[in-house]
């Protein structure tokens, strides 16, 4: 049985990026959203990506960014995958000729299936907890029983830690899990021991 894929998001420095890669993370997430405590500049991101070993997917996260801002990042940083965490329509997401995943928040009353179907070209749908005013990185879980059946691969986010990720994988069977706050010592700084413990818990879920 294949191990669930892992993205460690909110990477802000080379040391944390290398710790994630060496622990076995499949991808790292770089946040280009100025209001986030985990935000990086294109210059910082370029240095981080340049230090990575091969076969680690680089993901750029945007929240309702203008198109020229996305383009500027893509011109400066070798990004593999885009992640849109706002209200971006499909037409916007596909306009950069890069593969992308669409993040949706599990807000009460929202038809997740309908929202996901509005992004038929997305490589995956990331489901995160809904907290008013916060587009992500909330550190809160949501009721995994509310997850509908999706046609795209599912990326599970929201409040995951080494203590609950095995249950999440067993219950939800996602293609991948996305971790940020659950492996931090402070916002934007990863605890390398927590990263290793999280990866071990994912491995044990197989």
UniProtKB/TrEMBL annotation:
<keyword id="KW-0028">Amino-acid biosynthesis</keyword>
<dbReference type="InterPro" id="IPR044643">
    <property type="entry name" value="TrpF_fam"/>
</dbReference>
<comment type="pathway">
    <text>Amino-acid biosynthesis; L-tryptophan biosynthesis; L-tryptophan from chorismate: step 3/5.</text>
</comment>
<comment type="similarity">
    <text>Belongs to the TrpF family.</text>
</comment>
<dbReference type="GO" id="GO:0004640">
    <property type="term" value="F:phosphoribosylanthranilate isomerase activity"/>
</dbReference>
<feature type="domain" description="N-(5'phosphoribosyl) anthranilate isomerase (PRAI)">
    <location>
        <begin position="6"/>
        <end position="201"/>
    </location>
</feature>
<keyword id="KW-0057">Aromatic amino acid biosynthesis</keyword>
<keyword id="KW-0822">Tryptophan biosynthesis</keyword>
<dbReference type="Pfam" id="PF00697">
    <property type="entry name" value="PRAI"/>
</dbReference>
<protein>
    <recommendedName>
        <fullName>N-(5'-phosphoribosyl)anthranilate isomerase</fullName>
        <ecNumber>5.3.1.24</ecNumber>
    </recommendedName>
</protein>
<dbReference type="InterPro" id="IPR013785">
    <property type="entry name" value="Aldolase_TIM"/>
</dbReference>
<keyword id="KW-0413">Isomerase</keyword>
<dbReference type="InterPro" id="IPR011060">
    <property type="entry name" value="RibuloseP-bd_barrel"/>
</dbReference>
<dbReference type="InterPro" id="IPR001240">
    <property type="entry name" value="PRAI_dom"/>
</dbReference>
């Amino acid at each position: 049985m294949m191990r669930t894929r892992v993205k460690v998001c909110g990477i802000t420095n080379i040391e944390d990026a290398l710790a994630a890669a060496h622990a076995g993370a499949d991808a790292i997430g770089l946040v280009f959203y100025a209001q986030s405590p985990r935000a990086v500049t294109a210059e910082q991101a370029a240095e981080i990506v340049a230090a990575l070993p091969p076969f680690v997917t680089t993901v750029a996260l945007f929240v309702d960014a203008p198109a020229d801002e996305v383009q500027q990042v893509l011109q400066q940083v070798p990004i593999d995958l885009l992640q849109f965490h706002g209200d971006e329509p499909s037409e916007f997401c596909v306009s950069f000729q890069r593969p992308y995943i669409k993040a949706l928040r599990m807000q009460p009353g929202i038809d997740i299936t309908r929202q996901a179907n509005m992004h038929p070209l997305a490589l995956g749908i990331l489901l995160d907890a809904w907290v008013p005013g916060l587009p992500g990185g909330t550190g809160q879980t949501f009721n995994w029983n509310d997850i509908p059946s999706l046609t795209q691969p599912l990326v599970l986010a929201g409040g995951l830690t080494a203590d609950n990720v095995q249950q999440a994988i067993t219950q939800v069977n996602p293609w991948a899990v996305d971790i940020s706050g659950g492996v931090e010592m402070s916002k934007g700084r990863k605890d390398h021991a927590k990263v290793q413990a999280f990866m071990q818990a994912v491995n044990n879920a197989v």
